[in-house]
Amino acid sequence: MALSSARKAAVATAAVAALVGVSFAASASEAAPGQAVHPATAPAPAAAKHSASAHRKVPTTVTQLIGNGRVDGHRWSVALEFHRTFPKGYTPPKLPDGTAPQGSSLLCQRMYIGGIRIDHQGGPWADCQPVNGTHDPRAAGEMGLWGLHDKGLSGSRLMVSNPETNVAYGTLTLSDGTHVKATTATLPGTTYRAWAAPIPNGHTITAVDQYDTHHNRLTHDTNWR
Q: Are 109 and 140 in contact (CB under 8 A)?
């Protein structure tokens, strides 16, 4: 049966469409894994993958080793631990006026001598403090002596400083004339930082000094024992 010009055009159009469909299907089946086969749809999964990757790069808990070594034959270590939100099981302590300290994140100082965590008797959140996010200035400027006996006044002890941002390192001068140097380390993604140094049993502290990156002395303290 003869076909009209319009009918011929319709049949030709259908044939071309079918051929294009077969070619696209073949290209899709032969494409290498992960290769985009249609420019319009490729950005969507790539964007989703980037979003998921970015989400994975923000851990809820970050830990940074501040210092470690041996003192009196025992291993010691100090680390800072940051929780972006209050961890499960943590309840902020009450202040003397009955209110809770401000903060939605938690900063912990984990200190060990001989495998025993200092202040472990206070529970898993001892030596932790609420802070406002990753840049709370209240966490800087403190220094303390820590130990397993007599509140850090005897036995093997640790001096831990949470210095201002311009402090690069600290040094202890001990009663026997020795000097102990400790470099400041910072928690990644935060401004929380510290340095830590050990004090052997039977030794006392003559001076604690802190320096900037140019070795200029910033503080000099002789009140520690």
A: no
